[in-house]
Structures are given as C-alpha cells and as structure tokens.
Amino acid sequence: MADDDYWNKSNIQSFSFDEDEKGFVIKHDQKLFVDDNVSEISYELPASSEVPLHLIISESNLRKVLEEQSLKETPLPKTISAEEELKILRRRAQENFSPPPVSSVIRKMLLKKPFSLECFRALHEKKSLLNEAIRSGNGDAILTVVLFLQRTLEKKHFHTIMQSHPEAVTHFINYLVIRCQVTEASDFLTMLGKSNENIILQYESIMKLCKSPDVKKQKLNKLYNECIAHQTGTICPYYGTIVTNYIALLEWQLKQKINNPKLINILDVSPLESLYIACTNHKWTDASSDLSVANQSNPYHFADTFKIAQSQFDWVTLTERAQSQAWRDLDKIFEKKSWHSLKTTKSFAISVPLERVIFQLNTFDAPADVLNTFLAHIDDPHRRLALAKRFNAGKSIVDSLVDLKDREGLEKFIATLHIRDNVQIHAENALKNFQKSKWKADGLKLLKN
To answer: Three-class SS of residue 336?
Structure first.
C-alpha cells in the first residue's frame, strides 16, 4: 500500500481504555465540530467506539457553562404545572421577537434581575427606553441604556437623542472621564455643540492630571487659543477669565521660583497660598510695601493683579504675620493714612470681624498689648468687656468698665490684682478719674443750688 493511501485510510482500530465508562458519551458518527475547511487528512473512527464527555470538557468547565446559561433565564419551579410552564416559555419566546414594556425592563434593572435590551430594535422603542430610565432617576439604568444606544445606533441618531436628554449626557460624560477617555468626552461635547461644558471638562482634566506647572501652563494656553480666543460669541466670558488668570498665576509662581530657588512650595498652589508666601518673603518695613512701587513680589500688587478681596487679603496677612510673631507689622498694615484738614491722620481699618480677629490672634499667643489694640476698636463696651475677660486683657477690662461707668466693678477688679504692674497702675488712675469726675459733678450741683 502506498504511503498516502495508508495515512488517508487505515483499517487499524483504536483502543479505548474507557469502554466500560458510564456517563455521557458521544458517538463518533455524530460530528463534534462543523468546519467548512476539510483537513487534508481525514481520520475516521469506527462507529462502535465512544468518547466520554469528560475527555472533551472538564467537569468544572461544564458546570460554569451550564451556570452561565442558567443566568439568562429564571429557573422554573419544580411544582409548576405543564400549562403554566408552557405559558412562561411562550412568553419568553415572544419577548425575543417583540419587546416587553419598557417599564418592566427598567424595573428588572433596578431590582438587579436578568434583562435583555436586544429586543428593542426600532428607534422609537429605544427612545422610550431611555425616557423610562431617566424617569426612574437611577444612574446605573440610565448609563446602561445610553451604552446600549451607543452600540446599536448610528452616530447621527445617537447624537440627536442625546442632544435632547441632558441627564443622559451628564452620566455618559462622567463614565468617559472615569475611564480616562477625556478626548472622547471632549469630542462628544463638541459634536453636541456644548462649548462651555467642553471648556470646563478640559480645564478640570488639566488641573487634575497635569502635575508639572510648565506642562499645565502649555495645555492651558492651548485650551485658550483653540476653544476660547476665537469663539467669543458662544463662550461665557467668565471661563476665559479663569483660564487667563490661572496662566498668569503660573507665570508669577515660575518667576518667583527663578528669583528665589528656596521657594520650593510656591509652584502650582492656590492664589491665597501664593499671597501667604508673598507676605512671608516681603519686608513690611521697607518702602516697597507701598502699592505705588512697581514690584511683582509685593503682596499689595499681587492682590490687585489677581483681584483678591480685601477681607481675604486682611485675613491672610493677619494670619501670616501672627504666625511669624511679627506683631509690630500689624499696626502698619491695618492703620490707613488719610488726609483731613490738610493734616495726615491714621485710621484703623480691617475687613474681618474683630471678634474673629481676636480669636485668631489668641490662637498664635499674641501679647496682651496686641489684643488690647484690637479690642479697643470694638464699639460695644459689653461685648468688649466679655472678650477682654475671656482673654485676660487687663487694660481693655479697665477701659470697658470706665465706659460702662461701673465704679464698683472697677474696684472689684483692682482687688483681684496682686502684682504691681502697668495694668494695676492704669486701673488705679482710672479709679482716681472716677473720683475727680464725681467731685466735679457734685460741685456743679452746689453751684446750681
């Protein structure tokens, strides 16, 4: 016999060790695999031989396949009658050809029951499905339907439907951003004509993902040139201001870092943090503290450039100087010069509530003289007295009692002082003034009589 004939057809029968194996068997007269491409060598087994099923697939894999198939359908109760079983099977077969009510499908989604969306084929059916998902208010259901529409619809139909459903757009954009598909999300918003939302998305992604200030500055410039500069009619001006201000802030920080390499923490921080650093490195006793002097590192110029509110400036400056224990600078910062009757006068001005200022000063262990300076500007003597007693500011206690004309309270306070100091001297002088004012008042009464 020729070699080719021998290999193409052989009369040698194969031997099976599992002839007596019980269980599922497959006869070789049935085709296990269907393939259009017939192999050059056809191996034929006699019809009497059998192959056990566990040789084709393991028991564990077979169990997984059966479990996966059973997940698609709810198992029928064993006690169900044949008629009821026929109705259920008929209903399942009908759902494969005509879609069930959208409310029932969404209800299955919410209850985490098996469901299928493949039966919704018509465009109006898919719109109804999305509307029902939005009415449910469940984000998972909305996103599931949106992803189904994206997969089964043409882009133009998908964009048309999403254009009229902003809730679905929000969930879909969040889904893309979480998957780090920012470019796809930006393109999608551009196709929908949502330019402002696209700017917000790109700005937030740049601020979160870019760690290098140089790269962040480069991307922000690109965002401004491509999405803001040439679309002034459709873009909210506020967004352009945010981008340009942050670019200017990055440029200021980079320049300060070049001028002072020790400023390690100045890069890529907020404007108020930058102001705090500027206050730390500024010489308040120098003439450059005047706003008229052109100096970019000047805190006053920084606040004017980046439109920082006066209350924010006062609070940051107060906190930084207090933390630095530079108490003498506070008078220079918060005493404003003004012209009145051809004379230069000073007036104390601060845009933060004085009570909050005093609590902040006490946090940094401010001296009593500093507390007295700020307490003196509280108009209400009752509130001033309460704060002075709380923080043990003796001079303010005396002044408040004098303003309240409480001689008895002043005498009791003097009795609590055991050390001869400036507070006791100030209290005794105040008590003497009480006595003099009373003598003058009594003398005026006698003259009138």
So the answer is: strand
Mean pLDDT, the chain, integer: 80
- Alpha helix (H) residue ranges in 116-236: 123-136, 139-152, 155-163, 166-178, 182-191, 195-209, 213-223
The residue assigned the tokens 């303010």 is 396
Task: Please give the single-letter amino acid code of residue 52.
Answer: P
What are 45-83's pLDDT values in tens digits? 455 556 777 777 777 777 766 655 554 456 667 677 877
- Looking only at the bridges linking them, the beta strands covering 335-340 and 343-348 are antiparallel
How many other C-beta atoms lie within 10 A of the C-beta of residue 248?
A: 13
Which residue is listed with tokens 């964009």? 159
Residues in the chain: 449
* pTM of the predicted structure, to 2 decimals: 0.64
| Beta strand pairing call for 335-340 and 25-27 | unpaired
Domain boundary among 15, 49, 64: 64
In a domain, 44, yes or no: yes
The arithmetic mean of pLDDT across residues 369-383, rounded, is 93
State the number of CA atoms in the 13 A half-sphere of 155 facing the CB.
4
User: What is the C-alpha end-to-end distance of the chain, expressed in Å?
Assistant: 159
Domain for residue 33, yes or no? yes
Q: Which residues, 6+ apart, have CB-to-CB distance to 87 below 8 Å?
A: none
Sign, Cα dihedral of 399, 405, 410, 411: positive
Beta strand pairing status for 25-27 and 50-52?
A: antiparallel
Angstrom distance (rounded) from CA 376 to CA 30: 104
Domain end marker among 12, 35, 64: 64
Longest dimension (CA), the chain: 159
Q: Rounded CA gap, 99 and 27, in Å?
A: 40
**Boundaries of domain holding 436:** 353-441
**Which helix (H) or strand (E) segment is 45 a member of?**
none
Cα–Cα distances (Å) from 260 to 4, 158, 286, 288, 321, in that order, read: 88, 55, 19, 18, 20
Going 31 to 32 to 38 to 43, the CA torsion angle's sign is: negative
What DSSP letter does each residue of 177-198 carry, written as one string?
Answer: HHTT-HHHHHHHHHHTT-HHHH
* Residue 384 belongs to a domain: yes
Residue 251 lies in a domain: no
pLDDT at 229 over 90: no
Q: Hey, what are 24's tokens?
A: 């599922």
Report how many domains make up the chain: 2
